Amino acid sequence: xxxxxxxxxxxxxxxxxxxxxxxxxxxxxxxxxxxxxxxxxxxxxxxxxxxxxxxxxxxxxxxxxxxxxxxxxxxxxxxxxxxxxxxxxxxxxxxxxxxxxxxxxxxxxxxxxxxxxxxxxxxxxxxxxxxxxxxxxxxxxxxxxxxxxxxxxxxxxxxxxxxxxxxxxxxxxxxxxxxxxxxxxxxxxxxxxxxxxxxxxxxxxxxxxxxxxxxxxxxxxxxxxxxxxxxxxxxxxxxxxxxxxxxxxxxxxxxxxxxxxxxxxxxxxxxxxxxxxxxxxxxxxxxxxxxxxxxxxxxxxxxxxxxxxxxxxxxxxxxxxxxxxxxxxxxxxxxxxxxxxxxxxxxxxxxxxxxxxxxxxxxxxxxxxxxxxxxxxxxxxxxxxxxxxxxxxxxxxxxxxxxxxxxxxxxxxxxxx
Length: 417
Known about the structure:
Helix 10 packs parallel to helix 16 (about 365-390), helix 11 packs antiparallel against helix 12 (about 265-290) and helix 15 runs antiparallel to helix 16. With about 425 residues, the chain is an all-alpha fold. It has helices at about 1-25, 40-60, 60-85, 90-110, 110-125, 130-135, 140-155, 175-195, 200-210, 215-230, 235-260, 265-290, 305-330, 335-340, 345-355, 365-390, 390-415. The radius of gyration is 28 Å and the shape is elongated. The chain has 2 domains: about 1-135, no CATH class; about 140-415, no CATH class.
């Protein structure tokens, strides 16, 4: 009984939440001029909840019949309102039907899911002006890129085999395609950030967000832009180095989360490198500010599919070489293995070292293994800048990477961990 009352209260609350938004949108109208207001939407939710509760007593078909009758009645009232007001929008009708359905689901299904969907729907309804402005400003290239990204993620990714397809068990099409999707997504996020926040701040914000997922993807996307538009090399370098700094902090957080004893040694190892990279990012950012009026960055496409495929092929080649090097030596030692695997991905060796810390190896050695993987990955990303970016970008990245690795190397040499 108590559970049912809680579910009905949730159904009423969900309807009230959507009703408040609907009432606020139409707050200038006179009372009685709307087919449904705050109280009515609250009752819609409760009505759906009651319908869900009665289904167990009246049979499985009851809720479907009740929903059909409700939809017909609401559509009639909305039709009459549209004649009087001249508004042909179907949003009110759809919101009412959704409120009834959520009320029923709150009683029959997962309460947390019902609440989350209601909040999401309310946000969509509340941001009407923002969404309309976004659509008006959306270009065909942006829409096309978004559709390509969705197709890559939800159409092609599920059908790719999720197992190695080569004789050396190195190339997994599913995993390689995930990396390519991430690269395209990072490029798109950077593009949006530049449009919203401007060239310098947008590039750094987009890169920092991308660094949480894949700093390699950020390096590729921004390196490609530096070759196309060399006048924007400095702000692009600022974004790339910021992503590198975020990536090191992300690695430390993952490892310390699994093995808290790694927090101190990793902090000692990575703090100098993070400080160096952050300093370079700020330096490049300030240089870009002085030159911001000369030749602004102009973005035409959120991402280029051809460049994404090129990097996918490069990644496959590096993955295959790393697998052959490791397998051909009958299993490398832990430190060389970290250096080789770090060229491709730092997460596997980070997770492995964190699991072994304190049991199979000392926390200090585990931190050094993770640092070796990070250094190899930094070398790989600098190479990406050399291959896909402009010469000036490569020199900027080389300076930042070299000094960052020297700073962490000095900590190891001094024996502080």
